[in-house]
Amino acid sequence: MAVILGKPAAPIPTTQFVIGQSKTFTAPLTGRIKVIITGGGGQGAFLANKNSTITSNTGDATGGGAGGYSEKTFNVTAGDTFTVTIGAGGATTLAMNDINSSRVGNNGGNTTFVTASAAESVNMAANGGGGGQFSASTSSAVSTAGGAGGTASGGDFNYTGGTGGTISRVAGCQYNATTTGGGAVALYGTAYNGGSVTMTGAVGGADKIIATGGAGVGGNGGDVLGVTSTGDRTYRSTGGSSSRDGFSEYVATNVTSDTNETPGGPTTSPTISIIDAQGTGGYSRSTDNASPYSGSGGYGGGGGSAAGNNNAGSAYLYYYSGYGGGFGGGGSLTWVSGVDSTSTGRIGAGVGGNGGGGSGAFSGPFHTATSAGNRAWAAGGNGMCIIMFV
Asked: What sign for the dihedral angle of Cα 160, 164, 165, 169?
């Protein structure tokens, strides 16, 4: 406590609040406040594939959409009260061993900020992002949409969240599994999406392992475009950053490991917004008979993707993709293996960043993996409420 002329002074009221759970907010002083709320992020979809042959792992799974964003500035009087409800990120309520089939992701919850007792009538809503979708193997042309971004209303500014990455196939292109990353919150007004995949030629019998990174608040996850039947390849991409899109590369499937550099980085000058999310995107990695893992995004960056092939039948391998940084999307994971892991290491796709990022999708032998405590069907990031006196 401060002391003035030998007497204790009244404590200085807190003038900025970050609220991560539902509660009643009481204005500590009279003034003007800016309120920002974000909805919970959607959960990426899951493909229950368990086969060591790449072409026998089939289907598409897309990342979850990010929560919506609403911002409003208005006057308050000390003692005014508002009801804050925080939307949870999309997550499964099932025990891990009960997940024995492919599933769509769960939707994120809605975040609201509503007048309880105040002269100013406020009714803000930032809705949760949609869960990722999946498509079963088919020889027909198919397009699988990413989880939808959450909408918003009631603010001076209302932005829809970024979507999970989409997957498009031409006819005859069913012999591989593909996953995409989650979307990012439109923190600065523009929605960025998880990396998308476009297959322009029939894959046929060629081996393809494909996964994409999550979005950052300033860039999409890296796209994988123009995939054809030429050659056996592993495709993976980095997460988007605060300043640019992620990027993708492909490598021969016999590469032991390969790591991309992080795309972009902090922008050269801070933003006007007090939410200064300037993080990089996470790197991607692919492996053959080794544990694939990728990098998480910095604050505001998307998680990188991971992809790999376990044709040696090693049960101790772990596999995971990068988390989204604050408000960013998680990276996706495509893991080809005919055995469940006994590793105590982490297993799963990238969790959505706190503040409403969508999580990445996952394909592989997840539902009976024996890694106690570290396996998880990646959840979307929880929503958030930020209040600042301006």
From this structure: negative
